[in-house]
Amino acid sequence: MSDIVLPHSGYKKLIVYKKSDVVYQGTVVFCRRFLPSRGDRTVDQMTQAARSCKQNIAEGSAAAGTSLETQLKLTNVARASLDELLEDYLDQLKARGFSEWPADDARKTAARQFAKEHADWEEWKTLLETRPVETFCNLMIVLVQQCRYLLEKMIKWQEEDFKKHGGVRERMHAARTEARAEEWDKRLYSMLDLAQTPAELEERLLLAIDRARRAAASIARRKGWKR
User: Fold this and answer.
1) Which residues contact 43 (CB under 8 A, 6 or more apart)?
2) What is the pLDDT of residues 9-54, one digit of tens each?
3) What average pLDDT is seen over the chain?
């Protein structure tokens, strides 16, 4: 029988979710350390963007069982939230007279390697609590970029999954069709099994073939096909 509710959730095991949690926790620390505690809307904007990424990954995973379309939309929202957050960190660098580390900068290379190997908040916490604002922003930029890359891969996978499984309505239709086919097989077998002689079995088989042909003709007419 075709599955209607697909396997879903389990998002906490995803590397992209773990990294998104570090993005959120790190952003909270950044706002606490480097932004005013009151009167600055940037604090709300940055924390909400970071939280939106994490929460939409979680909600998308939970929705996947019944709606792959919803999952895909929420994952796209998560990616868009990271884009917004990335701009915020770049703006914070510019506002303080700093810039993003170049791709060939040794600090950038080291940051990428650290972000690649560490996806738990406890592994980042001490680091971010002690680094100056320029280093902090650049570390977060690298982490956001890696998280966004993983979301891009997830979106492509989800698109292929949607093409393969369709939405819940398509799966319900497939399940009903499969159930009807199974019921047809059972009725056919029962009809043939009632035969008492080889001749009667042949008669019942011909009758079943005739009924199948008439059913096929009716379906063809309904669909506008020529036979």
Assistant:
1) 31, 35, 36, 37
2) 578 889 999 999 999 999 999 999 999 988 789 999 999 999 999 9
3) 85
Q: How far apart are CA 148 and CA 151, in angstroms?
A: 5
Helix and strand numbers (H, E) in the chain are: 8, 0
Residues 144 and 187 both lie in one domain: no
Token output for 9: 């959730």
Backbone angles phi, psi at 39, to 5 degrees: 80, 10
Give me the domain span that covers residue 24.
11-165
My answer on whether 160 and 183 are in the same domain is: no
Residues 30 and 102 reside in one and the same domain: yes
The secondary structure element, H or E, covering residue 40 is none
Q: Are 129 and 26 in contact (CB under 8 A)?
A: no
- Residue bearing tokens 């009167």: 39
Residue 161 sits in the same domain as residue 177: no
Q: What region, left, alpha or beta, does residue 166 occupy, with left being phi > 0 and alpha being psi -120 to 50 degrees?
A: left
**Same domain, yes or no: 39 and 142:** yes
Name residue, tokens 């320029």.
134
- Predicted TM-score (pTM) of the model is 0.69
Give every CB contact of residue 120 below 8 A, 6+ residues apart in sequence: 18, 22
